[in-house]
Design brief:
With 339 residues, this protein is an alpha/beta fold. 34% of the residues lie in helices and 29% in strands. Strands 14-13-12-11-7-10-9-8-15 form a 9-stranded mixed β-sheet. Strands 3-2-1-4-5-6 form a 6-stranded parallel β-sheet, sandwiched between helices.
């Protein structure tokens, strides 16, 4: 039984408490939050969990095996560093930090202490995302040309980080997972309308090895909640719709069959259509499951078995470096920046 302390009982914290307090493989021994009202809500739902307002209370508890951090991004580094120094395994919400140097330091601390450092890039644990990874690994789409990712909603609007740090961290982690590499460069523009200096919408393009482009449309200032991805390969194309819980993945048997037309020019609609192939649309079976539960189970499994996490500190640091390049590009009016 892994004893866990959850630091942060705000918007996301209760979901972590619910998943870890299963009394089979793990239990939540402590919940820490500075807000007494939030702690009282935890007490009503889980009267057996100890409560505290000071994180140091759990950092010094020798019976606590792991610390789960669900606090604002600006606090991640200090809390994770203290937990690792105290010999705790750590799961910290995304992004791991707002600075790649700090992220690398946490990775080194975890490695030196022999502790698990995992980051909550929860979409990597989505069954649909993992199914797409299998299709790519099997070569079903052929060579990947580009990926278009749209993640929009109306709120929640944050003031500590912009929309890229809050939302694009999901998409960059998914793109890295699918493509098996980190981006080489990034260009981006953004707009700040609600809070000065905090971008509410970001349009970014990441350049990956093998000339793969990944385009991101990120906004918390949109009338419609959208989580859609289009992936184009030279053999097939694919869409992923996270809002479609029953059939999130669709594979399109479509491709350009002739890069160049033999004739000097295409003189009819029919001859133009002949250079394209449109086949069937297939819907791969995707197992149902809660991504967060899979993530939490994986964290406990890594602690027990000593295996590296799927979304470890090193993987999370590559996401931070990409977001830093996006940030620099926005400040430079869209100039492409190396990652």
């Amino acid at each position: 039984m892994i004893r866990i302390a959850v630091v942060g009982a705000g918007q996301w914290g209760p979901n972590l408490i619910r998943n870890f307090h299963n009394r089979r493989t793990s239990e939540v021994a402590w919940v820490v939050d500075r807000d007494a009202g939030r702690l009282e809500q935890v007490r009503e739902r889980f009267p057996d969990i100890q409560l505290a307002t000071d994180p140091e209370t759990v950092m010094a508890d020798g019976r606590t095996d792991a610390v789960v951090i669900a606090t604002p991004t600006s606090t991640h580094y200090a809390l994770a560093r203290r937990a690792l120094a105290g010999g705790k395994h750590v799961l910290v919400e995304k992004p791991i930090t707002a600075d790649s140097t700090e992220a690398e330091e946490l990775c080194s601390l975890a490695s030196g202490a022999g502790r698990v450092l995992m980051v909550g890039h929860v979409f990597v644990y989505n069954p649909g995302v993992q199914r797409v990874r299998q299709l790519l690994a099997a070569g079903e789409l052929g060579r990947v040309y580009y990926v278009s990712m749209v993640r929009t909603n109306l709120g929640p609007i944050r003031v500590d980080v912009n929309a890229a740090w809050d939302l694009a961290s999901h998409d960059v982690s998914v793109a890295n997972y699918w493509l098996g590499s980190a981006p080489l460069a990034a260009s981006a523009v953004g707009g700040s309308w609600i809070n000065p200096g905090v971008e509410d919408a970001v349009f970014a393009t990441l350049r990956y090895p093998n000339d793969v482009l990944v385009n991101l449309h990120i906004s918390w200032l949109s009338p419609r909640k959208t989580r859609e991805i289009t992936l184009v390969g030279d053999r097939r194309m694919l869409t992923f719709d996270d809002m479609n819980l029953s059939e999130p993945v669709r594979v399109y048997d479509k491709q350009v069959t002739e890069v160049r037309t033999p004739a000097p020019y295409i003189d009819s609609f029919a001859s133009f259509r002949a250079s394209l192939r449109e086949g069937d649309i297939t819907i791969p079976k995707v197992a149902l499951g809660e991504p967060l539960k899979a993530e939490c189970d994986h964290f406990v499994e890594c602690i027990v078995d000593g295996k590296p996490p799927l979304t470890g500190g090193r993987e999370a640091a590559t996401v931070v470096r990409a977001l830093e390049a996006v940030q620099r590009s926005m400040r430079a009016a869209g100039r492409e920046e190396p990652v």
